[in-house]
Amino acid sequence: KPSAAAQPTSFIGLDAFTGDAFDIDAAGAATLLGNVTGGPRFGFGPIAAGPGGRLFAVGPGMFSGYSIYEIDLNTFTATSLHSITSTSTGGVGMAVDPSGNSVWVIGFAGLSLYADVEEVDLTTGAMTAHGILGGNLWGLAFDASGNLYTSQQGATDPELLFIDPGNMANNAVVGPLTGVDMNAGIDLASDLGSGMLHAYS
Length: 201
Prior knowledge:
The protein is about 0% helix and about 50% strand. It is built from no helices and 17 strands. A hairpin with a 5-residue loop joins strand 12 and strand 13. The radius of gyration is 16 Å and the shape is globular.
């Protein structure tokens, strides 16, 4: 195993079953960085990197609620920041606001396929509910301009979906994610430096 001080050079992958964190390069090669300790009993859901090299993760609830964690990339210790009371399970997607002040979480509402979109202040833990979306949604990411996206299953391929947090009726399909096998379990990540969104399935 590499030293605990090993730092990722591209993307971070987290094995939800073992807690192992990997650096994944553009060719898809994975290098073990370390094992995350201090996480929730049933593992993490989505993870997302924020400004200043901070890494956040969601501990999904079984039927409702979730927890926000921060993972130290030097020691790979997870620290619980906030426990959120919500109808959302928090296990579908997470994105760090470009300001670095909050995380946005999307999760199924109980046992339904409807998903809650919520924002959690990283300092106070205050949660703001932005609305409910229907359909088979997965993943969450901001682009370089601060626009928010998720994905949904289209007729043949997953589709990139623009989310308007101020007006959920203003959501719009951007286009199909051709070459992505299926929408269930997809993750979206943002590269704020290049303005690109990345999809993982």
